[in-house]
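hiii, so i know i said id send this last week but things got crazy w the move. better late than never?? heres the sequnce for the chain we talked about at the cafe, plus the structure i predicted for it. fair warning i was half asleep when i ran it
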Amino acid sequence: MKFIGSKTKSTIMISLLAVMVGLSACSNEGNSPSPTINTPTDNPDASGKLKGRIVLSNKMAEQTALLEKAIEEYKKVQPDVTVDYQIKPWEGYETFLKTTLVGGSAPDVMFTEEANTFRAQDSIISLDDYLNTPNPYSDTEKPWKDDFVAPYIDMTRDGAGRSNMVPWSIFSLGLFYNQEMYEKAGVAQPPATWNEWKQVNQQLADADFLPWGLAIKPDDAQSLWAIGNWMNAAFRSDYEVLNLKHKEGWSYDPNDPASTVGEAITIDELWIGYKKGILDPAKSEKLRSLFQLFKEMTPYMNKDFMAIGGSEVPQRFLTAKNAQFYNGTWFVGNINMHMESLKADGKEDQTFRWGVIPFPKVGAENGAFFDKGESNELSGLRNGFMVKKSDDANTTNIAIDFLRFLTSPKMASELFQLKNPDSGKRYVADIAAIAGVPPMEGAEMLSPERKYADLNLTFFADQKDQDEFWGQWQKYLTDKITLDEFAAQRSKSFGAGIERQLKLLQSEVDQALIDSELK
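okay and structure toks below
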């Protein structure tokens, strides 16, 4: 669970994006020209006048070359500062942060995922005062926060509106497709909408190609990414009814992505929405319609989607077993390396031209409940930097100064273009959270833009509910149970999961609100 600000908003942490593919570990820095930074001489925090030592920790090996290069360049402008870099094991990193933050021995700067800001907010500094002033290493002369892609600077704000993380990279999801199969099937234009995609899939099937490769299992999130993103769009008209414990003066504007910043659905609000039937799968026509909408595509899926594992799905696409699959920016580097490897091994005949587009959107043509705009492109903040609270003001100043240097547009542009000399490809495929940094070649279509405001409704109440979902989902998609039976099973599992969470978080539950709303 995550606890947000003074409102103690306990939000379900089993999100639709939780099933992520780990990026491959990379070796040391590549052969990239050293960035040139014009350091303002009139700013004491950026003129070589700082002196001291900070510790930077990280668990993501593919980021090591970028961070080491940044430390090397930072030494040129702050020669009296030492940045000690620690690469930690992926497994156990969150436990390491929690333990050291509680014990007071945490690194000064922690590179981590967005969710950890909520777990650690009492031990990390609020960044707003720094973000609202210009970055001396940037030539934009705007507040530091304006150097980042909107609205990702706001995604770690707590219930009190405080920003807790300096964003670094964004993931974006899209539909990867085999261009040569498209051409042979007569597909002239990649699909932009769900209905267009059905037509494309029929063309592919008519040409004897398998349209969509996926696994309906916990280690392949394709179906959850689709349903969950649709759920956010379908329930926009219910947000103000569901979000009862909002900030004072809050109102929802579907066309302003910032209108949901700092807002979240708490477990008691989730229970109220469930009991009122809004979020109860057995009673909600919206949810039932979304389940049916996804099932429309089952004729175009691999017939063994219950048998194969999620790890096999990308490999099937890479070996041209199917025409399309749904994945993220991290896969761009993988497919590039795969094609280069085939060429190097003299197997160029096994390569193919490929492309990636935003996952086809659903909108009003798919249901009247999509009345507040079409589905967003599914993207999110992948990682960033937290700064430990410290009684030593000098240490905090150095930490902030280093992060300003690191995230200046010029520096970030150089770092994200660093290439692994072994592969000739970028170390990091994800999109930079700093505005103006070009994406990896091939990922240009995967935009991190969010056009509409979403509250990111949870699909599961807890892990037991999620575990039960997969068996129910498999049975429904293979016609072992009807839609009514599936909805009833989901209702029972979801409701029981919420009740378990209400007991677990009893001290934070607003029972008076529940009683008032459900009387």
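btw The first strand starts at residue 2 and ends at 4. thought thatd interest u
miss u guys!!
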